[in-house]
C-alpha cells in the first residue's frame, strides 16, 4: 500500500434515523410480567429523634433554638442532680446519726465485755486436776488432824521434855513458842501434800506457782481496798456472837518486849500466810474446780479457810477475806500474790492491835 492512501480523507458517514417503538399493549405487559409504576407516596414530616444532649451520631447544629434547648436541658439535669445530692446528704446525715448512736452502744458493750473479761477472765482457764475427791478429802483431813495434833500435843510435849512450861514462860518465850508451833504446823502440812500428791508427779502446769513477774501487784492493790469492809464485817460478827470467857493476852504485855513483838510479827505476817495459802489457795481451791465452777470453788475454799481458824467471832470477815484472796489468786495464778495480800491483812490487824 502506498503512502498516499494514508493521507486520503475518511469516507463520509450517513445519518441513520432512530425509530421509536410503540408502547406495548396491556396484554403484552401482562404476558411479560410488567407491573405499572406506582406513584410516589406523599411526603410527611415526622420527628425521628429528640435528644437533650449531643451524641456522636447526631448531626451538629448551630442554631439558637438548639442551644437554648440544650441550656434548659442542662439546667434541669443540674437541678435534679442537686436535689439528688441533697437527698443523699440527708440520708448520709441520718446514717451518720444512727452510726453515732450505734457507736455509743457498741462502745459501752465493748467496755462491759472488757471489764467482764478482766474481772472474770480466769474462768476460761481452769486447772487440770489429776486426782479425785478422795485425795482432796484425804489431804484436808490429814492436815486438820496434824494441825491439831502438833499444836496441842507434840510441841507442848517437846517443851515439857525440855523443862519448859508454857504458863511460866516470859513474853519473849511465849512468842518463840508460838513461832516454833506455827513453823512445825506449816512443815507438817507441806509434808502431807508432798506425800499425798507424790504419785501424781510431775504435776500439770499451773500448780503451786510462785512468780515475781507479771501484774499481780495490781491485783494485790485492788485486794487491799477490801480491808475496811473486812474490818466492818469483823465488828458486825463480834456484835452478833458474844465473847467467850477466857484469858486474853493484852497488847501491853506484848509491848514489854521488842523481841517478842518482832517474833509475833514474823508469825502473823510470814509463817501463817505461807502455809495457809499453800493449803487453801494452792491446793484446795484448784482441786475443787474439778467438781464445781471456779466462783463456787473460791467460796468453798474461803469457807474452809474461815472454819479452820476455829473462831466463831471471825467467820464472816474470814470468809469474805478468803473470797478476796481466792479471786486474786485465780486472776494472777500466782501464790505469791495471795500470800502478800494475806500478809498485808495480818499486818493491818497486828498494827491495829498495837494502837
From TrEMBL:
Q: Residue limits of the CAAX prenyl protease 2/Lysostaphin resistance protein A-like domain?
A: 261-347
GO term, biological process aspect, one: CAAX-box protein maturation
Q: Short name of one Pfam family for this protein?
A: Rce1-like
Q: Where is this region: Disordered?
A: 1-35
Query: Biased-composition ranges for Pro residues?
Result: 9-25
Q: Where are the transmembrane segments?
A: 141-163, 216-238, 258-279, 291-309, 315-332
Enumerate the GO terms in the molecular function aspect: endopeptidase activity
InterPro entries reported in the protein's UniProt record:
Rce1/LyrA-like_dom
UniProt keywords (A-Z) are: Membrane, Transmembrane, Transmembrane helix
PANTHER family tied to this protein: CAAX AMINO TERMINAL PROTEASE (PTHR43592), CAAX AMINO TERMINAL PROTEASE FAMILY PROTEIN (PTHR43592:SF24)
Supply the name of the protein: CAAX prenyl protease 2/Lysostaphin resistance protein A-like domain-containing protein
To which species is this protein native?
A: Digitaria exilis
